[in-house]
Amino acid sequence: MKFNDAVRTDIANSVLCWLATVDADGMPNVTPKEMFAAHGDDRLVIADIMSAGSVRNIAAQPKVCVSFVDVFRQHGFKITGTARIVPPEADDFADLSADLVRMAGPDFPIRNVIEVTVARIARIRAPSYILFPERTEDEHIARTQKTYGVRPL
């Protein structure tokens, strides 16, 4: 499955993604990741900055789920796929990590890249989009900003 413009937009507008993995015993683990980006048409790259548990779990079971939501628009996507850990000595590390390194700057060392090859993409929407279909997206955003005490620029 390939990314479309809507997926790319929500990736760019989301502050965090949530990476779900399972360990060798099947115990689930979900952790926030701050630096992630689309790579090509069908891969998501995530910076491993302090992700020892996620890396260990992916080594045991590479099937993962990643979700991200634009907090103000209150919609995003859930991506399921297969992950691999790309260490700095790998031939493709520089290519896969380029966007992440720009995001991280000098303050956050990237230990590995978690590369997720996409199998499925599903839309995530807040229930208010279903319960109040007559509201425009701008109205949804305004209500969300009011709820969180945020003023538009």
Description:
- It is a single chain.
- By secondary structure, the chain is an alpha+beta fold.
- The chain has a single domain (5-126), classed as Roll (Pnp Oxidase, Chain A).
- It has helices spanning 5-13, 52-60, 93-104, 127-131, 137-148; strands spanning 17-22, 28-33, 36-39, 43-48, 63-70, 75-86, 112-125.
- It has a 7-stranded antiparallel sheet with strand order 2-1-5-6-7-4-3.
- A hairpin with a 4-residue loop joins strand 5 and strand 6 (75-86).
- It is globular and about 50 Å long.
- The mean pLDDT is 94.
- Secondary structure: number of strands: 7
By helix and strand content, what is the structural category? alpha+beta
What would you give as the CATH superfamily?
Answer: Electron Transport, Fmn-binding Protein, Chain A
Low-confidence runs of at least 5 consecutive residues? none
The general outline is globular
The figure for the number of domains is 1
The end-to-end span amounts to 36 Å
How many DSSP helices? Answer: 5
Largest sheet: 7 strands, antiparallel
Strand order of the largest sheet: 2-1-5-6-7-4-3
Query: Radius of gyration in whole Å, from Cα?
Result: 17 Å
* Share in helix: 25-40%
- CATH C-level class is Mainly Beta
What integer is the average pLDDT?
Answer: 94
The CATH topology label is Pnp Oxidase, Chain A
Looking at the overall shape, the CATH architecture is Roll
